[in-house]
Write a structure and sequence with these properties.
The chain is mainly α and 324 residues long. The protein has helices at residues 25-37, 49-56, 60-72, 98-117, 120-128, 132-139, 154-157, 165-182, 196-208, 223-233, 240-251, 256-270, 281-294, 299-318; strands at 44-45, 76-81, 90-95. It has 2 domains: 7-100, Winged helix-like DNA-binding domain superfamily/Winged helix DNA-binding domain (Arc Repressor Mutant, subunit A, Orthogonal Bundle); 156-324, no CATH class. The two termini are 24 Å apart.
């Protein structure tokens, strides 16, 4: 399927907190569609049930059920407007958070523009990757003498958060492509082989942006101890082999301490009282993904993730585990 990527036709950027609200897939998709149609100023829209049903490939009854679910969550409010003859008219739908969210988005965009106006020169140096004084010193260094300590390019030590919006966009795209290559496979395997272009682009970015060190040292009692305590508190018996798989999965993430904390939160909030078996491979991957989404996706974390993905790829190559 070839997607039509036409930004002029509109799109819906929703708050990250929406992703963490438990709702059905149909209700989530309907909410996205309503956001795309809602007025930025008022949050109101009035697409018909027939239109929504056709767009989602569902019946009108399903649309009604999804709306009822969204109303119960407080995400929308609906008002019926009578027709001309007093019969059924159309439904006015208010996406309750939309006007305030769009106002916050505009304010954030204005703040970024102000920050960008004051740092144009810094961004120019970042694109070049070498400071002017360094270029001069290189031209005048006598190779027969001990050279002075070189001035390291700022781009290597600059926190990734200060990177230009273009760089951030590239990082996010690379992370998405690596995620697709990994699929649901456990470390260090891949569901499909990363493309040569993806590997080359990642290596180039990591040369220009130093990946911060991981936060493994922040884990006080050790991953295994924390996970063992988690399952014991839930009355779930986990054998040593399964525990080792879970420990390895968390240890291989770019921010193990943060992932561990969020993983425990996700498990405790979603685990059913009657479940007595540890999660299988697919369920574990889902919970780890949920933990990852709960961590703020700062450029620091994303670059660290790319560095981890490259290490995973090299190990997979060395062990002959890369799929054909």
């Amino acid at each position: 399927m070839q997607l039509e990527l036409d930004a002029t036709r509109g799109y819906a950027a929703i708050p990250d907190s929406i992703h963490h609200i438990k709702m059905s897939d149909g209700a989530y998709r309907l909410l996205i569609i309503l956001c795309a149609h809602a007025s930025h100023a008022t949050g109101l829209c009035d697409p018909s049930h027939a239109y929504l049903a056709d767009l989602m490939g569902k019946c009108k009854a399903s649309i009604t059920n999804h709306m009822k679910e969204l109303r119960g969550l407080g995400l929308i409010e609906t008002t019926s407007k009578p027709g001309r003859g007093g019969g059924n008219g159309h439904l006015s739908i208010l996406v309750t958070f939309w006007a305030a969210w769009r106002k916050a988005v505009r304010a954030a965009g204005e703040a970024r523009q102000k920050a960008k106006a004051g740092s144009d020169r810094v961004q120019q140096d970042e694109c070049v990757g070498v400071q002017p004084v360094e270029r001069v010193s290189k031209n005048h260094t006598n190779l027969n003498h001990t050279p002075p300590t070189p001035v390291r390019p700022q781009v290597e030590e600059m926190p990734v958060e200060q990177a230009s919006p273009q760089v951030k966009c590239v990082v996010e795209k690379l992370v998405e492509e690596w995620g697709a290559a990994k699929g649901k496979e456990q470390y260090p395997r891949f569901e499909r082989a990363p493309s040569p272009d993806l590997i080359a682009a990642t290596e180039d970015l990591l040369r220009r942006h130093k990946a911060p060190s991981t936060d493994t040292a922040l884990i006080p009692a050790g991953i295994k101890t924390e996970i063992s305590g988690l399952w014991a508190s839930l009355g779930v018996t986990v054998d040593a082999e399964t525990l080792a798989v879970q420990e390895k999965a968390i240890q291989s993430t770019p921010a193990p301490a943060s992932y561990l904390r969020q993983f425990i939160t996700v498990v405790r909030s979603t685990w059913k009282d009657y479940w007595r078996q540890p999660p299988n491979k697919g369920h574990l991957a889902q919970m780890l993904n949920a933990a990852g989404r709960a961590i703020q996706a700062t450029p620091d974390v994303l670059v660290r993730l790319l560095s981890t993905d490259m290490k995973r790829y090299r190990r997979c190559m060395a062990d002959g585990l890369l799929p054909a």
